[in-house]
Amino acid sequence: MAEAPRMPAPLDGGQIKKSRASLVGGVAVAAGVAILWIAIARDLGAVHAGSVSLGLLVAGLVGLWIWRADL
């Protein structure tokens, strides 16, 4: 019987690699989102601990997504 052709092994061992540039980009985007969130909250007169905390959470999640998606 003939063997089925095998898939070649990935050269990098199959691991997902994240670059430093992606990490820096994620941090920069997170900082930008936080600054814009607080500026908009200030314009709307909604600057209090809850809105700032929510803005920092959203900024962190967006930055994490940018880093993990390697954008």
How would you describe this protein?
- This protein is mostly helical and 71 residues long.
- It has one domain (20-69).
- Helix content is 65%, strand content 0%.
- The chain has two helices and no strands.
- Helix 1 packs antiparallel against helix 2 (49-69).
- The radius of gyration is 21 Å and the shape is elongated.
- The mean pLDDT is 83.
Give start-end ranges of low-pLDDT stretches: none
Largest sheet: none
**Overall 3D form:** elongated
The number of domains is: 1
Q: Could you tell me the strand content as a percent range?
A: under 5%
Structural class: mainly alpha
Rg estimate, integer Å: 21 Å
Q: Order of helices and strands, N to C?
A: HH
Key traits:
71 residues; mainly alpha; 2 helices; 65% helix; 0% strand; elongated
